[in-house]
Amino acid sequence: MRDLSDYSHPITDLFKQPQTKKEWEKYRLSQEQVDFFNENGYLAGIKLLDEEQIEMLKIALNEVADPKHPLHYLFHEFHSNESSDPSKVLFHSLGHWRIHPAFHDVIWNPAFLMASSQLLGGKSVRFWHDQLFCKPARHGGNVAWHQDYSYWTRTVKMQHLTCWCGLDDANEENGCLNYVPGSHKWGLLDKPALAGEMDGLKTMLSEEQLAAFQPVSVPLKAGYATFHHPLMVHGSFANSSLNARRAFVLNVFADGTVSDTDEPLLEGVPVIPKGEKMGGKFFPLIFRAD
């Protein structure tokens, strides 16, 4: 039993690593996909996992979700239920990459790495932190409308990216992700309670923003991902269906991002003084751009 953050490289064969530039090229996004992301603030439908990888990650999720797991203390955050509604359940955690090899190695999934670098403008990529969001069948909770960077202002400059990948088929019935296209151009908004009232953010918007608030749902098959800009307004509704909705999230930023605080950036992580470059074993360089 060990802290897997000590390993800044894959430790299993779950994700085969390309050995040549040609092997990397098969994971490259098209220019049309990059343009869509830049215009709308998101890009959906990117396949990250095959069936074997999905099953391995489901097994890993069941293991790490147990509060009695012997490495439970390595989580940065762990909420068996973060929902503000006592009749709903939203499991949410940060730090499981330190605990299970499958969640550790998914960070080095070449399809994820290539897309991340491209959507960050061709830059080298550092890991920020992971998340799990799980909504059980029948009574899964919502995730309120929000912008990711409103919770991340302790790191600058803003050159971050989020990848959301489902371990179950996600649709409107079980609480798939929803985006407000173009909202990444609205600037930084105040942050609401992440698992609070769905529409808390809307009370902070201007009349013009409210008029442009036209969400689109993003249904995805298991193993497929969606990437979004750090200022993209997004959220997901409750799950009252008969099917669970389990997903993991990988958050990254471009190499060169620096700390903007003298407080710990994540629970259990040594302080990186304000103005110093993000790095070290907790924020490893995971993709080096040519």
Automatic annotation (TrEMBL):
UniProt-listed Pfam families: PhyH
InterPro entries reported for this sequence: Phytyl_CoA_dOase-like
A GO term for molecular function: iron ion binding
Membrane-spanning parts: none
Keywords per UniProt: Dioxygenase, Oxidoreductase
Stored Gene3D superfamilies: q2cbj1_9rhob like domain
Cofactor(s) the record lists: Fe(2+)
Protein name: Ectoine hydroxylase-related dioxygenase (Phytanoyl-CoA dioxygenase family)
Organism: Algoriphagus iocasae
